[in-house]
Design goal:
It is built from two helices and eleven strands, in the order H-E-E-E-E-E-E-H-E-E-E-E-E. The chain is mainly β.
Length: 206
């Protein structure tokens, strides 16, 4: 029996729409999470604090290590587990470095690392996240929120490099670092700017 062309078009149209709906409703593939090992040579943590009510004093830590779990397509938030070696502090002045390593500040003999581990995140734009986590300074753990920008991802199917910049503001007194606050010698509010770059190996399968 010959099917009228008008009916044939309707049938084909229904089939086509059904296939379209099937494709439209099919779940998108989820990118694999990869473990990016941080490269200390290309990582650093800068800090800034107000000095005697005048200028902003800057210093840095040169030894930053850890891991970032991240899918290359930014379909999920980066997960950070970062450590900073206190003895890598660098202000450009050896005497000042020793002072900051002392008990009034970072107390490097008793507490040799600072650390941050993320606990959650919220997307705020393409490649931009508000990351929540725990910051540990002087052995005291406090929840903080960090502005994170994905600065780039580049690689091949087997290995890749990725970078992130993180910015957060804290009160050092929250961690028990109080020297100079009462007399105005040194501000309480500190800005941290952390530049990270890591390299992944084969996908982890997550």
């Amino acid at each position: 029996m010959r099917i009228p062309s008008s009916r044939l078009l309707i049938v084909l149209g229904l089939m086509g729409s059904g296939l379209f709906m099937a494709f439209a409703q099919a779940p998108k593939p989820v990118a694999r999470i990869e473990a990016f090992q941080l490269d200390p040579v290309h990582c650093m943590a800068l800090f800034r604090v107000h000095h005697q009510g005048a200028g902003q004093f800057w210093g840095r830590f040169n030894d930053v290590s850890g891991t970032v779990l991240y899918p290359r397509d930014d379909s999920a938030a980066p997960e950070f587990d970062v450590k900073v070696a206190v003895n890598s502090i660098d202000t450009g002045t050896t005497k000042l470095d020793r002072t900051l390593m002392g008990p009034d500040f970072f107390n490097g003999i008793e507490f040799d690392t600072l650390s941050f581990k993320s606990t959650g995140a919220e997307r705020v734009g393409e490649g931009r996240w508000k990351v929540q986590g725990d910051l540990v300074i002087l052995g005291k753990k406090k929840p903080v929120e960090v502005d994170v920008e994905v600065t780039g991802v580049r690689g091949n199917p087997v290995v890749a490099k990725a970078g992130w910049e993180a910015i957060l503001d804290i009160k050092r007194s929250d961690f028990g670092m109080n020297w100079g606050i009462d007399n105005g010698a040194l501000g309480d509010h500190v800005r941290l700017i952390i530049g990270l770059e890591g390299e992944s190996g084969p996908p982890s399968g997550r």
